[in-house]
Amino acid sequence: MSRTIDYVYTLMSPWAYLGFEPFHAIAKKHDVTIRYRPIPILEVFNETGGLPLGKRPPTRQAYRLVELQRWRAIRGVPLVLQAKRFPFEAALADKLAIAVLMLGLSPEAYLRAAHRAVWAEDRNLGDEGELANLLNATGYEAAKALAEAKSEACAAAFADNREYCLASGIFGAPSYVLDGEIYWGQDRLDLLDHALTSGRPPYRPDGDA
Predict the structure, then answer these.
(1) CATH of range 4-198; options 1.10.220.10, 3.60.40.10, 3.40.30.10, 2.20.140.10
(2) What is the pLDDT along the chain (209 residues), one digit of tens a residue?
(3) 46-to-3, 77, 156, 184 alpha-carbon distances in Å
């Protein structure tokens, strides 16, 4: 029986971009089903004590830039460190993955291109025209996907993902959840791979109690 990983992310996160390919490679390696859960990250921050980048102390902002350079080199992908289009209003871009799923399609190709558009090409995915171009270029029907992304059903699913985070103890993105165990950050993917390989039971905060 295939196992399922809840993939919690936002296109606003460069870390989700950096982890996108290795995560999907791990999922394919272990024949794992991915449940895509884009989230309104700032709302999750507000509920869990996180801070948007601009409100973090300068020392933390500076260290983030160093870490991005390290991981850019390790992952071997292009990444614009200080994208001109960041931050942007990501809700519609994020909800498009839900919309694509509602249309019975996989969002993987869209998300791959969208992550690259933001973090390698510095495009503005807060612009609906850019999103339409991206969808059409990756084989989706832009008009259908955008209409679905603006639907009440899609908005409800997006809100449900927020509630899932708060109920599950998730406070940041990307997070990967296997059997209730949270792996926060793309730098935890080796640990996720090990858990899938070993088949060990999930760890819990009260595991040694």
Answers:
(1) 3.40.30.10
(2) 579 999 999 999 999 999 999 999 999 999 999 999 999 999 999 999 999 998 999 999 999 999 999 999 999 999 999 888 888 999 999 999 999 999 999 999 999 999 999 999 999 999 999 999 999 999 999 999 999 999 999 999 999 999 999 999 999 999 999 999 999 999 999 999 999 999 999 999 988 75
(3) 31, 31, 19, 17
Do 168 and 177 meet the contact criterion of CB atoms below 8 Å apart? yes
CB 94 within 8 A of CB 36: no
Q: What is the rounded CA–CA span in Å between residue 28 and residue 118?
A: 25
Q: Domain extents for the chain?
A: 4-198
Which pTM value belongs to this model?
A: 0.95
Q: Which has the closest alpha carbon to 13: 40, 34, 32, 36? A: 40
